[in-house]
Amino acid sequence: MTLSKIIQLMRPHQYIKNIFILLPLFFALKITDTQLLIDSIIAFVAFSLTASAVYILNDYHDIDEDRKHPTKRDRPLASGDISKQNGIWIMVVLLGIGFLIMSLLSLKATTILAIYLVMNILYTFWLKHIAILDVTIIAIGFVLRLFIGSFVTNIELSMWIVIMTFLLALFMALAKRRDDMLIYLDTGKKMRKVIDGYNLQFLDTAMSIMASVVIVAYIIYTSSADVLARVNSHYLYLTSIFVTIGIMRYLQITFVLQDSGSPTKIVLRDRFMQFTIIGWIVSFGWILY
């Protein structure tokens, strides 16, 4: 067991998803508040450590299935680079540190973290085998990240931010299931039992619906009277260009390139997607700040 294998087991590349913890600060125009930013970053670290523990639990439970997967078989537990016993010890330590750090910031945020943990335990052992509910749980996880950021900074969340986050996460989760379906159709191997509850037509239709609703919801948000009054600008709707392009690119990656197995890796590797996200952040930040 080496340090590099422990880091691989923790899946730090997945931490990019935890940036949602910082969104309440960004949308509230308080990203320049040093103390709130520090608190949000500390919450980011605490949540990331807890999320790593959840990933280890999932790898431990799915070790037999992962050994059949073309890429997951190289994970430390599935490959045998880290023993099951050591994996459990690492998980316990990460959980302890994560909850300790979060408890020092906010009891409400710690409660949300506990809900996230319980939800993922249920997901690992039961809920992920129920079609539709499995992707819904993933989407709720992103919403919980928002609430942690909200409680740590005492910033009230906009209902539109919650709605759009849920829909966007659901869209990406469906794309991930579609990738599992393609592997099954190509190899005859079921990477997940829940695949029995899906087919390509359903996943394609559901993704198209979610993509459309996300774009419409964002346009409504950026053109709503209360948001325009709060940001003191009538140009926020222009940022919807980047949102639309980003969604279209993700659809292209899913339907044309057929490579939507890891949303995190798409964001980290796809230059088109990266420039689109940067364009959105810069334009949104310029208008807000």
From TrEMBL:
InterPro entries: Prenyltransferase, UbiA_prenyltransferase, UbiA_sf. It is found in: Membrane. Gene3D superfamilies: UbiA prenyltransferase. Pfam families: UbiA. One of its GO terms (cellular component) is plasma membrane. This is UbiA prenyltransferase family protein. The chain crosses the membrane at residues 12-29, 36-57, 88-118, 130-151, 157-175, 200-221, 233-251, 272-288. GO terms for biological process: glycolipid biosynthetic process. One of its GO terms (molecular function) is transferase activity, transferring alkyl or aryl (other than methyl) groups. The keyword Transferase applies. Keywords: Membrane, Transferase, Transmembrane, Transmembrane helix. It is a multi-pass membrane protein. CDD domains: PT_UbiA_2 (cd13963).
